[in-house]
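Interim report, section 4.2 (structural modelling).
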Amino acid sequence: MASKTSEFFMGARDMMPHHLGVFPFGLVFGVLAIASGLSALEAILMSSIIFGGASQIVFVQLWSAGVPSFIVGSSVAIVNLRHLLYSASLTKYVESLPLKWRMILAYLLTDQSYALMVQKYRIDKFSDYNHYYFLGSGLTLWLGWQIATIIGVLGASFISEQWSLTFAISLTFIAIVIPLLKTRADLIACFVAGILSILLQPLPWKLWLILAGIGGITAGWIATTVIKKSRRSEK
Amino acid sequence: MIWIVMIVAGLITYSTRFSMFNKSIAEKMPKWVEVPLHYVPIALLTAIIVPEVLIYEQNLSLSIFENLRIIAASFAILIAFISRNVIATIASGLVCLWVLQWLL
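Predicted structure of the assembly:
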């Protein structure tokens, strides 16, 4: 029977592969934040206050481009909307935990920890200490993210653009998105979002991000409805 | 000013994470919301990836000789499809890009 500590360390260990993508990502965020004119303190604390890589990058890029605060906030919110989905699909596993636990685990909920938790609950549904696994994986990622941010901030002037670290961000997301593409509707959502993200580039305030996101979601939604209807009519 | 935006953004982010960990809120969520929500990560992450790869020095660059990221990203996507492995995907993309940069 797994103990609390063994679950905790198993979570920490299973998170290790994700650090390969998250570490350069955190470095890039630190460097980018300083280059965008944020102070070291602002950059470092943002990693604790928001704790969401993609949205933090979006935040500093928009902020340095002089985009109105309202649009900056909305863009961050829509990028982070996906946590609602993650949160919703974990509800049944965590709802019986004490409030304190749920509050901490919610803070640690990321793309990476969600991916691990889904797998963990699939293979180990009845372990009493799955929340320790969640805590172990989440804390490790949090710590890695903070350290990477600090190194990025401190090393901003030494880190070379030639290392192509920004590309590591795209790769991290590729590693997350590709396994999500299972149905035709998923592919449609992906293509529509991708095409719109390029076509809408001329819009001000980097609105392409919000609009391409909404466009992709709507396309997937319509595709699901259409496919369902056509299946029903075939029967 | 930046602090206010940062804290508001942090609170919104936290509330999306915590919302469904709350039985009473989770029960109130209408069933149909699940369908569009399913596409949120796919749509948003793709919308971040594509310009990051295709836009080079603020211009759309579709030439595979000028913009080596296209080849490296395609290679990583292929590896992701085959392996479904995080390390393999990220490492293959980075190594591919570095090798191309060194060759050309």
